[in-house]
C-alpha cells in the first residue's frame, strides 16, 4: 500500500497539555531585525502537500494506487516563459540560489509554543538529566533520523544545496516536483516533464527533451533511466487554493502577460532583422559602374551588394573607405535616390514591452527592484538577503520544503527502520511524531546594524546590558566581573566619600574590613589596592605612605602602646584620619 499524505498540513492533533500541535517552522526575523525562531505552530503563507506514488506494476494495489499526475498545459507554458524571458529566469534562479544556502538539520519538538530543539542540544539535555540511561532507543532513533537526512542530502546531485535549489525552482515554476530514489543511495529531484510513466505502470527519468511531449505515457526510449521496481517516488506541490490536489505557482497568474511579452519581443526582432528596414534604392537605366579587371561591364546592383558584403566580411577592405564609382548622364544621376521602406521601431512598441515586463515582475514571488538590481543583491555570490525579502518570499518556500521532507520522507523512513509500537505511535507526543526536518538560515539572512540604536537605548536605560551585548555581537561571557565594575566605578568617581569606601571594603574584602574595624589593619591587600587604588601600570612604591598602605596607618607613632593604637580611629583611603581631618567628622564604621 502506498504511503499517502496529500495534506500533511492536516488538522492539528492535540498534545498532552491540550494545545494543538501544528506543523514545524524555522528561523525568521522580527521587525526589529533580530533573528528569532518561530514557534512550532507558526502560520504558513503557502499551503503545501505531499504524497508517495505507487511505482509497482499497474495490476497491483489498484484500489489504493497513486499514479503520477499528467502535467497541465499551463505548466509547459510556465517552463517556456522561464526559458524565454530573461527577467523571469533570473528571478526564479535567484530564489533557488537563496534556498541553496539554507542548511537542513534534525530538530525535536518540545513544546507547541517553542521552536524545535537541535538534535545535539536535545541529546545533551537527556544526558544531563540521566548520565547513564538504561534505554538507548531514544538516542538510536535520533541517530537514525540524522543518518536518513544525511543520506538524502549527500546523495543528491549538488548535495544539500542542489537539493534545495531544485526544490525552490520547481515550486516557483510548475508548482510541483518529484523526489525520486533512482538507485540505492542515489536521489534526484525531477520536474514534471522529467518523470514519465509507462503504460505498464513503471517509471523512468527522461533527462533530455525530445520531439514528443515529455511526461506523457509512452514507451521507453533510448536515454531513459528506468527506476527500480517499487522505488521511492514522492510528489511535492504547492496546493492550489481552489483545487487542493492541483499545483499552484506565481507564474500561473502572469502567463498571458508572458505570452504577450514573447510575441512583442518576436515582433521587435523581426523588425530589426528584416531586409526591408534598409529601404529601396532607385537607379535609372543608363547608369553603369566601371569595368571589371577583365574588361567586362559590371551590373550596378551586383556591385552595390558586393561592396556592402565585402565591407561586412573584411573590415580592412578598401570598400570600407573607397566609394562606389558610377557612370552615366548627369541628368540621370540626379534621379538616384534612397526610398525608406519598412516598419520602423515605434515608441509605442517599446513602451508596451516595458509595461508588460513590469506587470510580470509584479506578479512573481520576488520584488521587482531586486530583479532590476536596485536592492544590492547579486546572484553570482549566492546571495545574502535582508529580512523583508526573506520573510515574504523565501521563508514560505523553505517551510514548505521542510514540512514536506518531514511528512513524506523522514517519518515514514523512521517508522520502517525503528518499528515502533503502533499504539504508542498513535500518541502525538511519541518521539517520532516530534522529530522534524528543520532549517538554519543564518547564512542567508543578514541582520541590520543596530549598534547605534543599542548605544542610545543603553544610555537612556531602556536596554539591559545583555541586550546591548547581543546587538553589538558580544557574548554574555564578555561581561565584566563585579570587581571590574567596582574598579571602573572608583576610576569614574575619583575621590570616594568615606562612607562609600567602608561599603566597598565590606563587599570586596570582608576580612580586611573586619581588621580595619578592630584597628589591626596594617596594609591593604593587593586585590583591594588594585581595585580601589589602581597604579595604572606603574611600579608599586614602597616605604611609609606608599600606595597600597593607608597613609594614616604608615604614619602612626610606633612609640605608642598597641592598646593606644587600637583605640585610635582608622583612617580612610583618601589619606585622612577620620578623627583628625580638618572639617571631617568621624566616618561611621558598619557594625560598631
Major sheet summary line = 4 strands, antiparallel
Using only CA atoms, what is the Rg? Answer: 41 Å
The global form is flat
Specify the number of helices: 21
What fraction strand? 5-15%
Strand order of the largest sheet: 5-13-8-9
Task: Describe the 3D structure.
The chain is 39% helix and 11% strand. It has 592 residues and is of the alpha+beta class. A hairpin with a 2-residue loop joins strand 8 and strand 9. Helix 1 crosses helix 2, helix 6 runs antiparallel to helix 9 and helix 17 crosses helix 18. The chain is flat.
What tags apply to this protein structure?
single chain, 592 residues, 4-stranded antiparallel beta sheet, flat
Helix-strand layout with pairing:
Layout: E1 13-14, E2 20-21, E3 27-29, E4 35-37, E5 48-52, H1 73-84, H2 86-99, E6 103-108, E7 117-118, H3 119-129, H4 137-154, H5 159-172, E8 176-183, E9 186-190, E10 195-197, E11 203-205, E12 225-226, E13 233-238, H6 255-273, E14 280-282, E15 288-289, H7 300-313, E16 326-327, H8 330-333, E17 337-339, H9 347-363, H10 368-371, H11 387-418, H12 422-425, H13 431-434, E18 435-440, H14 451-459, H15 465-472, H16 482-493, H17 498-508, H18 510-518, H19 526-532, H20 551-554, H21 562-567
Antiparallel strand pairs: 1-2, 3-4, 5-13, 6-7, 6-18, 8-9, 8-13, 10-11, 11-12, 14-17, 15-16
Helix pairs in contact: 1-2, 1-6, 2-5, 4-11, 6-9, 14-15, 17-18
